[in-house]
Amino acid sequence: TEAWRPDDDRPRGSLGPVRVKAPAKINLHLGVGPVRPDGFHELNTVYHAISIHDELTARRGDTLTLTMEGEGAGQLALDDSNLVIRAARALAGHAGVPAHARLHLRKRIPLAAGLAGGSADAAAALVACDALWGTGLSRDELAAIAATLGSDVPFLVHGGTALGTGRGEVVSPVLARPTTWHWVVAVADGGLSTPQVYAELDRLRGTATAPTPRGSADALLAALRQRDPRVLAEALGNDLQPAAVSLRPELAEVLKAGRAEGALAGIVSGSGPTCVFLAADGEDAERLAAGLTAAGVCRAAHPAHGPVPGARTS
Ligand code: C5P
């Protein structure tokens, strides 16, 4: 949909429905700095969007409503506290249009999994309502609204592979020759609360056995440029991993099982409890996913690839 201008007599926006796909994210490197005065931690992270998607459909309506199916249906409030509704209202407020839409979410990204599913849904709502309402904002304008909704939301507007700084909301795309990486995403039963995982890291950092940070975003970016999964495997690292494993000790077994099944490397995704494993290629990822499923250490293991684009109409 082209941007609408006041002198335009075309109908504004789309008659709908508008369908938007938004990807899950993993963090190839997640460097967590100290807590800031606002309670957030200073981050240095390399985000990577992968091929597990939620899908949001937006239709014209007289009010703002949200329905959902799939992962976590029935567990998620669909009222004003839902990030999708908050995103639609934030866009409407910014653009000065009424927040009228019937939104339907098909979720495949598990809840509270460390895959930023809620942030993906918020990014999808921004892109879908922008098209439905014809508000014609640029990706950077959408990302600015996204930053008010959550630390990971701007990245999910952009997608691909990107460096995240600040509390994660300052996103710079990584320009690299296109390479597809193959992953296995091992989903756990039950979620982990992101604030609790950050609090556990702060607690561990105050003890004698404080976990040592591993690697750097720069080293990770250098590894990506070599386009060799064995090199990338050595550079993956997540400062939140010791905290997630401390709260959920069985994650150590999942990581061990992945290595035993031939993964090049395995890390906890974001704040967990999902674990992601790097495979040499697509076939390897299929084999590894089957092996992890058979080992019975996780609820499900899905092959995926990345990078993929951020939230966009399909
Ligand atoms: O920004 P978002 O709503 O996704 O953050 C969820 C929670 O994760 C925050 O309330 C905070 O406890 C923690 N967090 C943090 N530092 C960050 C990002 C998130 O401590 N950089």
From TrEMBL:
List the taxonomic lineage: Bacteria, Bacillati, Actinomycetota, Actinomycetes, Micromonosporales
Catalyzes what? Answer: 4-CDP-2-C-methyl-D-erythritol + ATP = 4-CDP-2-C-methyl-D-erythritol 2-phosphate + ADP + H(+)
PANTHER family named among the record's database cross-references? 4-DIPHOSPHOCYTIDYL-2-C-METHYL-D-ERYTHRITOL KINASE, CHLOROPLASTIC
- Cite the GHMP kinase N-terminal domain residue spans from the record: 82-160
Q: Name one GO molecular function term.
A: 4-(cytidine 5'-diphospho)-2-C-methyl-D-erythritol kinase activity
EC number in record: 2.7.1.148
What is the name listed in the Swiss-Prot or TrEMBL entry for this protein? 4-diphosphocytidyl-2-C-methyl-D-erythritol kinase
| Active-site residues from the entry | 25, 152
Name of a matching Pfam family: GHMP_kinases_N
Per the entry, what this protein does is: Catalyzes the phosphorylation of the position 2 hydroxy group of 4-diphosphocytidyl-2C-methyl-D-erythritol.
- Record keywords: ATP-binding, Isoprene biosynthesis, Kinase, Nucleotide-binding, Transferase
Q: Which HAMAP family match?
A: IspE
UniProt: ATP binding residues: 110-120
| Gene3D superfamilies documented for this protein | 3.30.230.10, GHMP kinase, C-terminal domain
UniProt xrefs under InterPro entries: GHMP_kinase_C_dom, GHMP_kinase_C_sf, GHMP_kinase_N_dom, IspE, Ribosomal_Su5_D2-typ_SF, Ribsml_uS5_D2-typ_fold_subgr
Q: In which pathway does it act?
A: Isoprenoid biosynthesis; isopentenyl diphosphate biosynthesis via DXP pathway; isopentenyl diphosphate from 1-deoxy-D-xylulose 5-phosphate: step 3/6
State the similarity comment: Belongs to the GHMP kinase family. IspE subfamily.
Where does the record place the GHMP kinase C-terminal domain? 220-296
